């Protein structure tokens, strides 16, 4: 796992915070991930994983040391070597994902205690040009 970015927001990032990642996939990209993690442990509340080899986006959670049920999005808007913007925000019920300002999927919260989701991580085949975390709505 090649860690490209990690931020820790002790007050929690859900709901109401928006993560905007501008980047470009690496040439010969295989996959990259954006993970929303809980506190200090290894639970992943939301794993967003575009896979170039499968032209699929895999979404999942990793709780109690196990991957959960995958949710796949077959609409694959990423093109190797081309820049893109991913925005992920959340409300009380779902994460919402937009690529280049078009909504592509939502993922229902599996971790119900939203304030425990405090870390955002970007890993693997991506070149990051900027990452912004900002408050989108007031809760
Ligand atoms: C696994 C993969 C993990 C994660 C998971 C999602 O096959 O090794 O990195 O992507 O799928 O369900």
UniProtKB/TrEMBL annotation:
PROSITE patterns: GALECTIN. Gene3D superfamilies: 2.60.120.200. Pfam families: Gal-bind_lectin. Residues 5-134 form the Galectin domain. Keywords: Lectin. One of its GO terms (molecular function) is carbohydrate binding. Coiled coil: none annotated. It comes from the Eukaryota. PANTHER family: GALECTIN (PTHR11346), GRIFIN (PTHR11346:SF21). This is Galectin. The lineage of its organism: Eukaryota, Metazoa, Chordata, Craniata, Vertebrata.
């Amino acid at each position: 796992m090649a860690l490209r970015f990690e931020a820790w927001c002790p007050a929690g990032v859900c709901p109401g915070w928006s993560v905007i990642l501008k980047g470009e996939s690496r040439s010969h990209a295989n996959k990259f991930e954006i993970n929303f993690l809980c506190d200090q442990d290894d639970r992943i509340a939301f794993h967003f994983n575009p896979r170039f080899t499968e032209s699929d986006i895999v979404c999942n959670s990793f709780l109690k040391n196990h991957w959960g049920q995958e949710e796949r999005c077959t609409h694959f808007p990423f093109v190797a070597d081309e820049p893109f913007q991913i925005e992920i925000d959340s409300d009380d019920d779902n994460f919402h994902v937009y690529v280049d300002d078009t909504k592509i999927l939502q993922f229902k919260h599996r971790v119900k205690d939203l304030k425990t989701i405090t870390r955002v991580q970007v890993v693997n085949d991506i070149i990051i040009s900027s990452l912004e975390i900002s408050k989108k709505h007031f809760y």
